[in-house]
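REQUEST ID: PR-0412
SUBMITTED BY: lab tech R.K.
PRIORITY: routine
TASK: structure prediction, single protein chain
INPUT:
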Amino acid sequence: MAKNLLIVESPGKIKKIQGFLGSTFKVVASYGHIRDLAKGNKAIEVDNNFKMNYVISPDKKDVVKGIKKLADKAEIIYLAADSDREGEAIAWHVKEVIKAPESKIRRIVFSEITKKALEKSIANPIELDVNLVNAQQARRALDRLVGFDLPPLYGKRLSQIFLLVEFSL
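STATUS: complete
OUTPUT:
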């Protein structure tokens, strides 16, 4: 049994990373986002400081179950999602779902999949960037509250209105 668990976003990275890290690591993927806002009016509590209520995506229940099982047995859990806003949010959601003690969790980032880059990132973990997580959550909340699924015609019409307002100023 590997004593370290490394969680990446994409399953396409697993084999190469596993090969570099060896048997002391188990590398698995979250397959992107594992949670999303609840459906309907329960997603964002506007009257409660815009509290966001997340649920595990139905298609990720087995993925989450597997990650939790491995996380329970691991000594150290490395969250290796991408370093952008979405990746940071994915790492945060995984951390929230596995409910592991903070002392077991490490956030790492690397820009290339090489043995040297992996070893350097593992030796130098960083803090989870809460500002990036908040930025992603704000974007997601706006998508839901404003209505990302508005028909494209409305979006086109709104952009025309904004252009008219801008030119009239």
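NOTES: The radius of gyration is 19 Å.
REVIEWED BY: pending
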